[in-house]
Amino acid sequence: MSDFYFPLEEWTNSFVNDWLLPTMGDFFNQVSDILGWFVDGVTDGLISIPVFLLVAIVTALALWLSGRGLAIFTIIGSVYLVSVDLWPEAMQTMAIVIVATLLSIIIGVPIGILSSKSDTIYRIVRPILDFMQTLPSFVYLIPAILLFGLGGVPAVMSTFIFATPPAVRMTNLGIRQVPEDIVEASRAFGSTTWQLLFKVELPMALQTIMAGINQTIMLALSMAVIASMIGAPGLGSVVLSGISNVNVGLGLTGGLGIVVLAIIVDRLTQGLGEKL
Amino acid sequence: MDNKIEVEQLTKIFGSKPEEGIQQLKEGKSKDEILENTGMTVGVKEASFSVKPGETFVIMGLSGSGKSTLIRLINRLIDPTAGHVKIDGEDLTTMNTQTLLETRREKLGMVFQKFGLFPFRTILKNVEYGLEIQGVDKEKREKQALKAIEDVGLKGYEQQLPKQLSGGMQQRVGLARALANDTDILLMDEAFSALDPLIRQEMQDELIELQEKLNKTVLFITHDLDEALKLGDRIAIMKDGEIVQIGTAEEILDNPANDYVSSFVKDVDRSKVLEAEHVMKKPEVTSSFRDGPKMAVKKMEEANMSSIFVTDKNKQLKGLLTIDDAIYIHKNNESMETVLKNDFPKTAPNTPLRDLISIASDAKYPITVVKDGELLGIISRASILSGLVFGQQEHAEEVHA
């Protein structure tokens, strides 16, 4: 057994250290700069909005998209976040989630559309998605540090990779589920491929795509917490310092904050999906 | 150029190497042999036919006969493997994508079995769809769509969603959507098959009515022979991807091309196909006003009848004179108009026989076939029965003799 050794570890390291970083380093630096600027911008934006105003907006959204229950929960949850002094951390987490989710949608939905149009593309894409979803999420963190350093940007990148698959899968599924006779009707009247896509297929797949985006957001939230291990600021880092100091109270305080965010974001996007 | 649609040797083979299938078809192999040899399915095999402007051409076949594939080859929703489709003389099979799109937009409307309505669009927006993708401006397309909606009798439903409508109404929307584009050709793929029987008949009648007004060229697919016979100016019967016979309803009923067709048509309810004028007889004796009661009685005696139809010199039907009344007015020297009866059944020449059966069983007198007031013929119970059993020929000859 030990005679045969598969040097995957060495190969990967030499690939990353000897080729990827020297040749692509500049590219990753630039991506890092742009993303960093973007994450900081969103974080600053969220924090600079007065707490009262932001809570009012989200509560109104909750009332419109979901109902009174969520609206009341939003107010109570916000009061909690402010009273345990975790509001800025919550906003940092949200900034990572928002940027990563936007990336996931911008890249995931078009890949989903392509997958639905071509069985060949889907055959290539599907194992990649399986790989992305089943590989333990901690493993992403290592190349993320190497390529993007510490902080918010590698957090966004690993979150994006972890959270994109449902967006691709559900977009693909939604478009493939459009009944054949409706697609035929659209084509029979002389629609171009783009008209078919934008006037018929996407509107009909919208609810399924929204369900995918809802999953993407939830995955992003969980990954944004894990990414605190590579220095992502936010509620995750509160929990992490709770762990490292064996401070149960701190861990619970941060953990509850994550629960509050998760429930609000989940119900809001679900409600949005049903409204469309 | 006088044919609206021309289909030549149109073939579709489903599979990975269709050229191989074509080769085997040319060698005379059957559909089953090709499936066995290559694993490929022959959907449509060398179909040829043409449709004249304003004609309703029905393609009839059971499921799996290739009829749905055939209609999709016509507008290239499915690309043919071999053969040609010409619309107004232009070959669709060699067109580039842009010209194909334009041809679909300008010449080919289509109605689907499962309606194919866009569930998230209102009725108006559904009907507008064809115009919208052509970039017609909002005002004009709304006007055209509203007219089409009115044509199919759905005025007032413009702002509803498809799911709020019944099946029959949804298919009216489907029809309106095809009409709104104002194409010369309507492709109707089992358009009424998903509707329940009463609604289906209603829609068939309305299609016939619309067709009289709009005079489209209609290619209609159905699995229902009765529907084919009712709607089709000509009918093509398909089996296993091949067209086995093309002809008018009468031609197919009277001269089935092979055993398959005859096994099909033997159960046809002739009462739906035959019409009043096919079985009517010339009224044996008519008495114009000039003849007077005495003459009428004499004619009745000769023909061994107890009543006679009275017409004026323009052959306009005036009424029925019984022998008792004739004798009465002769004795009392009264005018014929005062005693003429009018309680006999009247019908139009194109009434299906089916509708006459119950009338005939209730009526004391023969049914009169009347057009614009003119008496064309009469139908007795016996002529309905013989029509059902023997078809139309002998009676038709009698009338025209």
UniProtKB/TrEMBL annotation, chain A:
Transmembrane residue ranges: 45-65, 70-88, 94-116, 137-163, 238-265
Pfam families, per database record: BPD_transp_1
GO process annotations (BP): amino acid transport; choline transport; glycine betaine transport
Localization annotation: Cell membrane
Keyword Glycosyltransferase included in the entry's annotation: no
InterPro entries linked: MetI-like, MetI-like_sf
GO molecular function: amine transmembrane transporter activity; carnitine transmembrane transporter activity
Coiled-coil segments: none
Major location category of this protein: membrane
Residue intervals of the ABC transmembrane type-1 domain: 90-269
Membrane topology annotation: Multi-pass membrane protein
The keyword Transmembrane belongs to this UniProt entry's keyword annotation: yes
SUPFAM superfamilies on file: MetI-like
Keywords: Amino-acid transport, Cell membrane, Membrane, Transmembrane, Transmembrane helix, Transport
Assigned protein family: Belongs to the binding-protein-dependent transport system permease family. CysTW subfamily.
Name of the protein: Glycine betaine/proline transport system permease protein
From TrEMBL, chain B:
Coiled-coil annotated spans: none
Domain ABC transporter: start-end pairs: 5-265
Keyword Lipid metabolism in annotation: no
Keyword terms of this UniProt record: Amino-acid transport, ATP-binding, CBS domain, Cell inner membrane, Cell membrane, Membrane, Nucleotide-binding, Transport
InterPro entries per record: AAA+_ATPase, ABC_osmolyte_uptake_ATP-bind, ABC_transporter-like_ATP-bd, ABC_transporter-like_CS, CBS_dom, CBS_dom_sf, Gly-betaine_transp_ATP-bd, P-loop_NTPase
Cellular compartments per GO CC: plasma membrane
EC number: 7.6.2.9
Gene Ontology MF: a single term: ATP hydrolysis activity
Compartments, record wording: Cell inner membrane
Substrates-to-products reaction catalysed: a quaternary ammonium(out) + ATP + H2O = a quaternary ammonium(in) + ADP + phosphate + H(+)
GO biological process entries: amino acid transport; glycine betaine transport; response to osmotic stress
Ranges for domain CBS: 280-336
Subunit structure: The complex is probably composed of two ATP-binding proteins, two transmembrane proteins and a solute-binding protein.
Sequence similarity: Belongs to the ABC transporter superfamily.
Protein name: Quaternary amine transport ATP-binding protein
